[in-house]
Write a structure and sequence with these properties.
Layout: H1 3-21, H2 25-60, H3 64-82, H4 84-87, H5 91-117
């Protein structure tokens, strides 16, 4: 193991010790976690907005039914990711999370196939 790797491991352990043993360390870590989650959601929303602007004519060319499926799948993914904390608290919630994400992903796949076929319904 190189010196740089050992140093990086020591830094991670030191940060973990600060979070575990410092008063309010858990609250600080929770704040950083929530800020990172919010930043991640904003970046995803920005990327989806840019994709919408670039592919607007293709999206409208899908037809009403497939466009509704696309918007619904994206909406289900966002709501499911926002509710992940509560859904993962229970067993049925965990199953529902995987079912919702899986169903939305499959719907996005079907919309993509429809887009590639070039047939609008």
């Amino acid at each position: 193991m190189s010196l740089a790797t050992a140093r990086n491991i020591a830094i991670v352990f030191a940060l973990a010790a600060i979070v575990a043993f410092a008063p309010g360390g858990g609250d600080g870590a929770e704040l950083v976690s929530r800020l990172l989650s919010a930043a991640f959601a904003l970046v995803i929303a920005f990327i989806l907005g840019r994709l919408y602007l670039q592919l607007r004519s293709d999206i409208f060319g899908l037809g009403d039914r497939w466009r509704l499926a696309l918007y619904g799948a994206v909406g289900v993914i966002f709501v499911t990711l926002a509710a992940s904390g509560r859904l993962f608290d229970t067993g049925p919630g965990t199953l529902a999370w995987f079912a919702l994400i899986g169903g939305a992903a499959y719907t996005l796949y079907l919309v993509f196939r429809q887009y590639r076929s070039g047939q609008a319904y």
